[in-house]
Specification:
Number of strands: 4
Shape: rod-shaped
CATH class of one domain: Mainly Alpha
Strand content: under 5%
Order of helices and strands: HEHEHHHHHHHHHEEH
Structural class: mainly alpha
Number of helices: 12
Strand order of the largest sheet: 1-2
Radius of gyration: 30 Å
Helix content: 40-55%
Distance between the termini: 24 Å
CATH superfamily of one domain: Homeodomain-like
CATH architecture of one domain: Orthogonal Bundle
Length: 290
DNA sequence: ACAGTTGGGTCCGTTACGTCA
DNA sequence: TGTGACGTAACGGACCCAACT
């Protein structure tokens, strides 16, 4: 079980989606990530990941991007029915990138990208509305299958970081011959898929926890019955050594702290609403035979 | 300093399309 | 050939946050 989680590099999150979304502190996180998994490569999609290296990608990011460019240039030649040839306007835009909040951001933003009318001066927007579907004047969306190569590049990119800043979105889009919006959507959907998988893993994990707890409960009940039987057996009861550290509260049937020794405790007597000192119990471990 | 506005980002639920058995 | 299931690209809306007024 843990092996699965480790293999997947997952962090287990038990949370209530709405609450966690608004208040990450409200979610219970069991971090099952192996230590070697870096935060940038983790799939912790249940928490909002801040835009990594927002306006200023690290040199390693740039190196990665360059590596990508070299790596992908060759096989992208054969791409794709979905491909739009990069326009001069796009090239200009990319050259003009200065910060996420600059022109690029507004261009890559969903509304500006989707909703603004096609503009002769704006290459991005010109190419952003569908590839051929809008040319015929229809508004119906045509779903375009990404090629294997495109998916592979996107996948690689996602492995490095599951969110994109505008700069990288544009670069990736240009490299793949896609619209930035398409890249953005792909990352959104990819995060959703990752989260879904994580949820399935969580469910499985919780199921097993529940089974373990049920088993443990059954075992404790049985043990309790045995203890009761022993208590009712007089000769054994007489031979029994007095309890050393733990006693059983006869009324609430819980393992309680030893009898009070101080005068104050004696005066207070046994209180049922006081927390009992319970035996240490690890619900995640499999039940062991005694 | 603080409240309101704005723009951009993400997530979520849903729809619609492409593929395959 | 038709069809239902499934995967996933694409969409709209809600919400959050930072920058700006």
């Amino acid at each position: 079980m843990m092996v699965e989680n480790q293999d997947l590099g997952l962090s287990l999150s038990l949370n209530f989606p709405a609450a966690a979304e608004r208040n990450p502190a409200a979610s219970l996180q069991l971090n099952l990530m192996p230590a070697l998994v870096s935060s940038s490569s983790s799939f912790n999609v249940l928490h909002r990941t801040p835009n990594w290296s927002d306006s200023c990608p690290s040199s390693s990011d740039r190196n990665n991007a360059d590596a990508f460019r070299v790596e992908t240039r060759s096989f992208l030649k054969g791409i794709d029915v979905n491909r739009i040839p990069p326009t001069a306007a796009e090239a200009e835009e990319e050259a003009g990138v200065s910060s996420p909040n600059s022109t690029i951001s507004s261009i890559s933003g969903k509304r500006s990208e989707r909703d603004l009318p096609v503009n002769e001066h704006d290459g991005e927007r010109t190419s952003s509305r569908g590839l051929s579907d809008d040319e015929d004047g229809e508004n119906c969306r045509k779903k375009l299958r990404l090629s294997k190569d495109q998916s592979a590049v996107l996948e690689e990119s996602f492995k490095e970081h599951n969110t994109l800043n505008p700069k990288q979105k544009l670069a990736l889009a240009k490299r793949l011959g896609l619209r930035p919006r398409q890249v953005e959507v792909w990352f959104q959907n990819r995060r959703a898929r990752t989260k879904l998988k994580q949820t399935e893993v969580d469910c499985e994990f919780l199921k097993r926890c529940c089974e373990n707890l049920t088993e443990e409960n059954r075992r404790l009940q049985k043990e309790l019955q045995e203890l009761r039987a022993l208590k009712l057996s007089p000769q054994f009861y007489m031979q029994m050594a007095p309890p050393t550290t733990l006693t059983m509260c006869p009324s609430c049937e819980r393992v309680a702290a030893p009898p009070p020794s101080s005068a104050m405790d004696k005066a207070a007597g046994h209180q049922h609403n006081r927390p009992h000192r319970m035996l240490p119990f690890n619900p995640w471990s499999t039940p062991t035979a005694h």
